[in-house]
Design goal:
- The chain is α+β, with helices and mostly antiparallel strands and 159 residues long.
- The chain has one domain: Ferric Hydroxamate Uptake Protein, Chain A, domain 1.
- It has two helices and twelve strands, in the order αββββαββββββββ.
- The strands form four sheets. It has a six-stranded mixed beta sheet with strand order 1-2-5-10-4-3, covered by helices on one side. Strands 6-9 form a two-stranded antiparallel sheet.
- The longest helix has 25 residues.
- The radius of gyration is 20 Å and the shape is globular.
Length: 159
């Protein structure tokens, strides 16, 4: 009887520890996206304020669709916005921090910067975003209690 109780408590404890580890790592998760992925199609875009993404190398500037300058509408390509803002190089790619504004705004100004021409949009829009660069290098994969965890998600195709 005592052994069953121990196994039950041990299982519960392990589940609690893994649950805590999962929650603490969730802020470090990076979504691998394509060059043309729009902010509106990012995972959990309607529920999160900050989303970290990894943009691939060799984004074709001629295929970039961006609306706004510094603040971009959610129908803009995230990686292209990062290139437009001067945070990413089209040839190298990299990691972006995407800050979502769930209230949106109005009067998005168009401009040309870093080989990307953004469009203007003078109406109000319900969701927009800004981008910033990764402030510190990524850490190595974490190991906790003998369980290897990574800070990356598999690539997902977003349009």
């Amino acid at each position: 009887m005592r052994r069953k109780q121990f196994n039950k408590n041990c299982t519960f404890f392990i589940f609690c520890v893994l649950s805590f580890i999962g929650r603490s790592l969730s802020d470090d998760l990076i979504n691998n996206i394509t060059c043309k992925a729009k902010a509106s199609s990012l995972p959990n875009v309607n529920h999160q304020k900050n989303i970290k993404v990894r943009c691939p190398a060799n984004c074709q500037l001629s295929k970039c669709r961006v609306t706004g300058t510094s603040v971009y509408t959610s129908f803009s390509g995230v990686c292209c916005a990062g290139i437009h803002a001067g945070i990413l190089s089209a040839n190298i790619g990299g990691i972006l921090n995407v800050e979502i504004d769930h209230y949106g705004g109005r009067n998005y100004v168009g401009s040309t910067s870093n080989g990307v021409t953004s469009q203007e949009y003078s109406l109000s829009w319900h969701l927009d975003f800004t981008v910033s660069g990764e402030s510190e290098p990524l850490s190595e994969p974490r190991v906790a209690f003998g369980i290897s965890t990574t800070t990356s998600k598999p690539s997902i195709e977003l349009s």
